[in-house]
Amino acid sequence: MTTPIITEQQDLTTCPADLAANAHLCLEHTAIFYGPQQALRETSLSIPRKRIFSIIGPSGCGKSSLLRAMNRLNDRIEACTVRGKVLLDGEDVYAAGTDMIHLRRRVGMIFQQPNPFPLSIEHNIDLPLREHGWRSRSKRRERIERVLREVGLWDEVKDRLRHSALRLSGGQQQRLCVARALALDPEVLLMDEPCSALDPLSSAVVEDLIVRLRDRLTVVVVTHNLGQARRISDHTAFFWSRDQMGCLVECNETERLFNAPARDLTAAYVNGQRG
Amino acid sequence: MWRRIILYRFQIDRVVRVPLFVALAVSAAVVLLVVCFLVLESADALRAIGPWRFVSDASWHPTRFADTGQFNLMPIVWGTLWVTVGAVLVAAPLAFLMALYLYFFAAPRRARAVRSLLGLLAGIPSVVYGLWGLTVLVPWISRWQPPGASLLAGILILALMILPTIALLTDAAFQATPKASADAAAAAGLSRWGALRAVVWPPARSGVVAALVLGTGRALGETMAVLMVCGNVVRTPSSLFDPIRTLTANIALEMAYAMDLHRSALFVTGLMLAVAVGVMVLLASLLKERDPYAA
Question: Do B255 and B174 belong to one domain?
Fold first, then answer.
């Protein structure tokens, strides 16, 4: 079997020009390091507005690191440095003086393991709202009900809003986390394998939820589940790992990437022959 | 082969149980024995003098005989209580602020340095604190409000002594915040205050209570330092500048020459100390118990 080799740096960023035009998030020569070790080769990528963008690839190819660069959650890791630019609506989130609280209101995040706060269901959403300046209690309650309805959780929890969120099932917890993120009206929602810790039924529910977010906000979802990427996303970026360093192999409309991949490596991966 | 490994593991589990149980039994037995010892030794005094006189006599002038002595321990109890409460009130907020600083603000390297400093502070023998208190703190207070050796001196010295204990344990409780929750708080754009309320405090609460209990216990039981700076006059304090005597100091000061009922009365003092610790642990368990959002 031949090993596809990627040679030129230029070839790695196969981002179609039509994507760049409507870009919401733009990576410009973004590279990520953990200490001296480079985790992600210089990558440029455009993520279109109000579409679902999926990032696929094997473990260790820098997908999650890249996602965490978009809301600067990487800052929390001492040794992690990001080079290049991450533009949100044309403004570099890594620019000096970026208001982190504001950035994270605009760019929400969902994690692989559902991580509700160890508080009541209601407080899980109420507290971030208060933190972000929602003074009026009645408006907060309205918003809580609205987002819980949006994620289809309202009818399940309306009688026990004061119960601990940790007593919910995994799928319910994940939907609560989505509701918590949506409550702040984010423009971008980053999702790091949002379904992989859930059972198939809950996974399907969360997946439907993601699809309903299309046209409302920009969703970037990292997933190991190729079927899921294919079902829900408009565009897909495929990353691969070489010499323990992640690199972008191909980025295209999801249908084209899966049906007519430009590279052998992509074809091998999406057909299950590699990875 | 797998069978053998599984069997072997099973046996290990059983073998390990024995020393673990023995360790548990020994520590439980020691506690029981100490209490028994205190009760037995104080029985003479409690029988001959009666419990009531320990709280109602005119003063504390113990003698070998029940009819010639005065056995009121209450001024000492009050002195102990005030100095302990005062020390905790001074130390706990400071310790809490230090732990907050270490968790939210300090760069990792600086946090490590502060932690080892606190560890050092916790390791200084109490007699050294006492020495400093006696030669620096007491004269300083005396210039302001004589005589200097006072409740206030005791509070300040004890606060200094329990500060590192409470701070380090509170810090440890904060550090135990699950990383996933901390990430959630950051990703939701919470301020530090919000993160404290949402993800740090709920799981840390019982650890913080434990830190307070240990700090209070240390303050209650401290003998040498308070003996050196508090003046040891048996009188219910009416101000911060009055000298006091604590239960521990009472035992340490008089045990050397006490005989018969006097000796037994000092064991009553010890018993009271044990009761105080018991009450405190009970209060702490009440504080700990209700965690409304436990899974």
Answer: yes
CATH of the domain at B118: 1.10.3720.10
Out of A117, A130, A164, name the one closest to residue B294 (CB). Answer: A164
The answer to whether residues B160 and B275 belong to one domain is: yes
Run means of pLDDT, 10 residues per run, chain B, 295 residues: 65 83 95 94 92 91 89 95 97 96 91 94 93 96 91 96 96 92 93 92 91 94 95 93 95 93 94 93 81 53
pLDDT of residue A1: 35
List pLDDT tens digits, range B176-195: 888 889 999 999 999 999 99
Contact (CB<8Å) B188/A181: yes
Check B186 against A73: CB less than 8 A apart: yes
Co-location of B81 and B125 in the same domain: yes
Same domain, B110 and B208: yes
Nearest CA to B248 out of B214, B273, B230, B216 is that of B273
Measure the N-to-C terminal CA separation of chain B; round to a whole number of Å. 41
A248 bridge partner residues: A239
- Same domain flag for B29 and B76: no
Q: How far apart are CA A12 and CA A110, in angstroms?
A: 28
CA–centroid distance for B134 within its chain: 22
Q: Quick check: is B55 in a domain?
A: no
pTM of the entire predicted model = 0.82
Main-chain phi, psi angles of B74, to 5 degrees: -60, -40
Clarify whether residues B76 and B168 are in a common domain.
yes
Residues of B with CB below 8 A from A166's CB?
293-295
**CB contact, 8 Å: B295 with chain A?**
yes
CB contact under 8 A, A117 and B191: no
Residues B126 and B227 grouped into a single domain: yes
Residues of B in contact with A220 (CB under 8 A): none
The residue of A130, A131, A172 whose CB has the most chain B CBs within 10 angstroms, and thus the best one to mutate to test that interface, is: A131
Record: contact B293-A103, CB cut-off 8 A: no
Nearest to B158 by CA among B286, B244, B60, B233: B244
Reported ipTM: the value is 0.85
Identify the domain containing residue B13 by its residue range. Answer: 2-48
Where do we find the tokens 């600083």? B101
In a domain, B65, yes or no: no
Chain B residues in contact with A108 (beta carbon < 8 A)? 187-188
Domain tally, chain B: 2
CA atoms in the 13 A half-sphere facing the CB of B142 = 14
Buried b (16+ CB within 10 A) or exposed e, B124-135: eebeebbebbbe
In a domain, B95, yes or no: yes
Residue at B15 is within a domain:
yes
Same domain, B30 and B155: no
- How far is B112 from B94, CA to CA, in rounded Å? 18
Chain B contact for A120, CB < 8 A? yes
